[in-house]
Structure formats: C-alpha cells, structure tokens
Specification:
- The structure is a single chain.
- The chain contains five helices and no strands.
- The protein has helices at 2-26, 30-57, 67-78, 81-109, 113-134.
- The longest helix is centred in the middle third of the chain and has 29 residues, at 81-109.
Amino acid sequence: MGRDFIRKVRSAGLWELPAGRSAQERGTTKSVRIAGDHLVAGHTELDRRAVKAGRAMGVSLPTQPTGSQQEYLGDMEKARGKDFDKVLVNHLRKQHGVVFGIIGLVRDQTRNSIVRSLATRANAIVLDHITVLEDTGLVNFEKLNDVK
C-alpha cells in the first residue's frame, strides 16, 4: 500500500503541476488563477516529498503522466476562455476527490513513518486544493461521480 501510494503522489504531480501552471497563465478569473497558485505550490512540495520517500524506500517512480492524465491535459489544452476554466476545475476537482479517500485509508493503515508523513501532508494539501477549486464556483457536483 505504501509504495503504491508514493507512486500515486508522484503520478498526480506529473499532470496536476502543469495543470496548475496553465491555470496561473490561462485562467480567466482571479479564483482560477489562485487555484493554480495553490496547485503549483502544493504539488511542487508533494513531488519533492514523494521523490525523497521513493529514494528512501527504493521505490521506482513514474516520469510521465498516465494515459488518462494526458487526456485531461489535452482537454485543457484544447479548451479556450471560460471553457478552459470549467474543464480544468472539473478534471482537477474530480481527481482530488478520488485521491482524498485513498489518502485517508493510507494514513489510517500504514505502519511506515515515511509513508505516514507523506500521507499526512498530502491530506492537508489535497483538502486545500479541493477547497480552492470549489471556491471558483465552477465545480459541477452532479458530474463528480461520472467515471472517465
């Protein structure tokens, strides 16, 4: 569970960090740009922590976003103006919601202090990201449980 969690944290940063940079640069509202700031700061920190944990535990880490993560980034790249804001916010909010549950489970069940420390910090950062994404007013809560 712990090794997989470290990989997931690293994998999340591989698409959420560029998405955050896009939000900073292309967001049409202040709230979307603020969300971008939080995403960049949070995933920069989590990426650093995941790499450090991976080294300490001998875990091989991904270096490229997964296929679905690349699709999310592609959707954002194609979108323009206010549509960009909506696509970005909804992809990110949905994925942060998924990972939030995983973090709680890992935090509760791990016996490894390195993994527990990463999960504790990830919990705070992901909750912050969920909050700033929802603060944009663009989250489509009815579609959060749709599978993609």
